[in-house]
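Run log, item B.
One chain of 251 residues. Sequence copied directly from the ordering sheet:
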Amino acid sequence: MSSSDLLPSKLGTKQHWDEVYSTELANFADIGDEGEVWFGEDSVEKMVDWALENVPTDPAPYILEVGAGNGNLLFALCEAGYAPEQICGVDYSEDAVKLARAIAQAKATPSEDNGEGEETAATGTDKITFATCDFLRDEVPRLDGMAAASATDVALWGLVLDKGTFDAIALAEKDAQGRAPADGYPARIGRVVKPGGLFLITSCNFTEDELRAKFANDDTGLQYHSRISWPTFSFGGHSGNVYSSVAFQKA
């Protein structure tokens, strides 16, 4: 499937996501609801398990999530042992960033909810960086301690993650020149992954083969690395998966 085969949807607009995260930010302030987990908790668990199998926590890698939303995937990685000071989530919705920061602070604040009268807190979530960034246009902010070959070097991330972001971009309107925003996304991903680094994407709109065709090519510098298995379903004599999760490595 080409990104041009998908009909434009409100899910591909910044206005939609600004409205979603404005509501979720207000809900979190009012009742502590952290908002929707895109693709469900199972997707978070599968992506974290894959990371632990393929990306050691020591030495700590620099981890970037594009389209981090409320930060749930990055919080799970932090809880799994990855250094929060070297984790960054970017989103083009300012309220998404505000929500992720608020949740991070709340998780890092000791509470007495464990039923044993002991204070508990998620270690270091407030040290994760969340930044407003339009990934298709802006440069991702550098974290402290990042070693770059030059001032213009952006290939700095050992693990880059996408959970539904490419899907949303693929639903955006074409520009005035008839170009689909999603067509430029794979190359933008490839340029921020460091040599030997990994990119893991989970999608509901594209099959594994389609993702491999889009991301493993000369334009990105990425090669197929591995996949995450999902339960299959059959309908009308065809079988498939609800989601596709594919990993790529920078040559």
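Observations after the first pass:
- Residues 14-31 form the longest helix (18 residues).
- The first strand starts at residue 63 and ends at 66.
Flagged for discussion on Thursday.
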